TrEMBL record:
Gene: otsB
Name of the featured protein: Trehalose 6-phosphate phosphatase
Swiss-Prot/TrEMBL catalytic activity: alpha,alpha-trehalose 6-phosphate + H2O = alpha,alpha-trehalose + phosphate
Protein family per UniProt: Belongs to the trehalose phosphatase family.
A GO term, aspect molecular function: trehalose-phosphatase activity
Stored SUPFAM superfamilies: HAD-like
Organism: Sabulicella glaciei
Keywords associated with the record: Hydrolase, Magnesium, Metal-binding
Cofactor: Mg(2+)
Amino acid sequence: MASNLPEIASDWALFLDLDGTLLDIAPRPDAVVVPLGLVDSLRGVAARLGGAAAIVSGRPVSDVDRFLAPLAMPGGFGHGTEIRLPGGAPTPSQAARTVPREWLDRLREAASGWPGVLVEPKPHGVAMHFRLAPEREAEVHGLMQRCASECEGYALLPAHMAFELRPTGASKALPVEVLMRHAPFGGRRPVFVGDDVTDEDGMEAARRHGGFGLHVGRDFQGGSAEVRAWLARGASA
Ligand SMILES: O=P(O)(O)OC[C@H]1O[C@H](O[C@H]2O[C@H](CO)[C@@H](O)[C@H](O)[C@H]2O)[C@H](O)[C@@H](O)[C@@H]1O
């Protein structure tokens, strides 16, 4: 067990990032493996917290639901552009925007000449990954930067071996703020667990509501595996 890592308490509202936190990083977005036992742990922790457990991911809700089936957890998806309240359907948030078609065409055309570079379209954004072609980082960055500067309403987001275009106003703080206004989240102590720079917004929102953030690199010495072990302990406490 990592030192100073608090165990999950029954008065918490838990906000969990997905990639790099619950799931190990994989060579490409569609190659992630959902470890045996993760879904059971999430179900158990959610039951213990009276349903106050959410996923907050840069992924679209369709990806998250496919990975965690049969669970359909509340949370924020696409960096807060889609929000699902407990028991509800996912709906676009106030930050949602549609990526212009010409951008996608432009990115796909460039990627077709850069073997290993992947374009990941999302309902309200797009990511361009260079994990399999690290030598293309500068070119991917330059192209994504041009796209962001040409279209009002989107900002460039540096990610793990990728750059994303995210609507301005979208952030992981938004789902925390929204869910904390709804039962069973409201009145609980929010704890946001993440690994990435985008997760800092969610952690800051948790602090505003009297809670705190846990960072995979700083608080979980074993990385995602340790996060999963912590959840499993929390589910059976
Ligand atoms: O907010 P998250 O749940 O952490 O999602 C952030 C992004 O994760 C995915 O990309 C990252 O993970 C991939 C799989 O391990 C990896 O191949 C890639 O290099 C990483 O950048 C996802 O594809 C993005 O849509 C998410 O925004």
